[in-house]
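Much of what follows relies on a compact textual record of a protein's fold. Think of the row as the fold of the chain written in a discrete alphabet. An example makes this concrete, so a full record is given next.


***
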Amino acid sequence: MLFFSLSYLYLFGMGSWLLMLALGLIVCANRYRNWKGQPKKVRWVKWSLALWSTLAMLTGVELFYALFYDQTDSFSMTNVSRRWNELHVVQNPQGYRDKHPFTRRAAEGKKRIIFLGDSFTFGHGVTNVADRFTDRIAASLNRVHPDRFEVANLGTPGHGTPEAVKILRDEILAKDYHVDALIYTICLNDIESFHYEKSRRDARRGSRKPSFFLFRDTYFFNLMYFRSQQFVQPEVRDYFSYLQDYYTGEPWQHMQLALDEFLGLAKEHQIDTRIVIFPFLHNLGKDYPFKESHQKLTDFFRSRGVRVLDLEPVLAVHASENLTVNRFDAHPNPRAHQLAAEAIQTDLLDDLFKESK
């Protein structure tokens, strides 16, 4: 039950509303008894009871979503999605969703692998952090080489390539954090930061937030409000379908410069850097529209001599298994994280798993 996650304001409002419903039922029952034999007045009581029944039913639905429903959406716009974050996201002292602190030095005798990325790396919609691909890899490494490796997850929702550069330059390098291998997990929307439309799209999404309390402060009605927005707001409905053009224009040029800066910083400090490319999972298949974008990214990193793993062909084989968190959240679910972890272990970090003790 999610009772203890509800705000005092919500509990007070719902309590007041339930009291009003109870009083309304009492009034209707008294009027019905007092007006027996007066058909016109009894008819009004029956209509009032029908209205009360409808309101009571909707209240019951709202209470179900408030007390028992726990689900994310792609952009974490709904109250139930934001509450999911409050309930299931535990951050370490450095502000990352990782069960271990991100200290400057790895434990004595251990090599540290750092994963950078956005909400895919963060594990948006994945309740148990042990189900994320980074934690699965950490567990596998520990089985093969006990106490030899330390894995840190620095994934942050909404981060793109500029943020990855900033974390590497201003956090990891400037503060002299120990790192042996750096894995940057790219999602195709990382390019969005290089287009002027990003701020406008974010503003349009923000402008859709309801101001009426019934849609703003509830759970079921708030959820239904945002579900309806998917039919009128392309940015929510299409989930980055507009990004295809970015990889053929100016944003791609800017992204390459930022990636070169990222790789240059890592090389300067002799950090073993590798790349994982995640596909969009909701439209995987033979008509997947981003194959050319994947190829551009893959060719770019190979031309720089950087090991890169494209997960699109790996996950496309399993597209029929439904690899997203839910139909309204296109992030990878635990099964997708499992497949990604297995591929990364086999095709990108194979040398680490084969290291002699």
